[in-house]
What does this fold into?
Amino acid sequence: MAVKQITRRPSRMLAGVLLLGLAGSAGAFHRETPPLVVLTTGEDTDLPRVPSQGRRLLALAEGQGIVTLTPFLTQDAATPLTAVGADPAVSFNGRVVAYETDDDPLNLPGRQIVKWTYGTLSTPIVDMSGTSANPSLDKSGRTLVFESAGNLTNLATPDVVNRVYVRYKDGTLALVSSGSGWSGHAMLGAKRGLVAFESTSDPVTGVDNGTEQIWVGKVTGLPAAPITDGDGPSTDPIVSDDSRLVAFVSEADLAADGAATVVPAGGADTGVAQIFVYDTWSQTFAQLTHEPAPGCGRPDVAKVGGDWRITFVCDGQAYYHMLRKNQRYHVPTPGGPTQSIIPVGVHFLTVSTKADLAAGSGTTPGYQIYLLNLFQAPVPVVSGSATWFPYQGIPGF
It folds into this structure.
């Protein structure tokens, strides 16, 4: 197998977030790029919670800083962006990066959100509580969703609890979440203003019941509303790049009680996490996995032609499921566990694994990031079928 190694300039500041430039003609990349590209070789590296929804930049988390890399354009070494930063998000057009840091330009207390736009740093939110985190951007990078335990609007109750906010392009703030429970881990879709997050607020009473549920809404038509109401937690929502689907993890048996309701209610807590997808158009669900403990996690979803590719990890193994085709694929990482996998465009995947894919066997000391070209090296189909409820919202081919 042909392997491409991305060289990196030796620097202590390289520990951070790699931004992989994918600008230009997508048609050439899958034919010219080898089956495997090694992106990191250093310390433990994980893929970000919020994936890049465009093809221009891909964010990879590693250490405490942020760097940029454009191997498909210049094949040059990584260039440091900032020495202190975490949880980056990239706009769909690839021109804006948002991240959380305790080293912002205004020297505000605690954690703040910083935006990098054409090389200029700014602090779009002044949060005197110092608790702003987990940013997510829209297509242009001008609308921002994030979480904070500070009372940033007069709509929030005085008690200190994590909430989800939106900062509109005109600079105004609005409260996205509601109720007295913890809310966070929000993601804003690149298109159509769809936002999803998890919250422990009771979907009916708003009281904190301690069980996370998935909430979905439009940033232009708040408030958001819950789409789950199970006895087990539902977490980690990810919005597709076309803002139609929300992939998430749930330990609740949502399908058991979801046959006749828009919001599946009272699904028993199975204690084992499975992967689900919610179609915002038909308001229907698909359960993609039915695995034994330890279950599955780390979902992501992207539009691929007329279908959607949902990636996830089950017991250290990487998979993806084509929703309309209703086929599951196994992404082999022999010799070591995989912790995350994210689709990049039509033909590419990125994986974070301890399997030494460059050597073809064995393991690496920490998790490393690889770019896989499915056009050059297709992966095998394995058993696994989606269960739709209350009916199949997206027809198959």
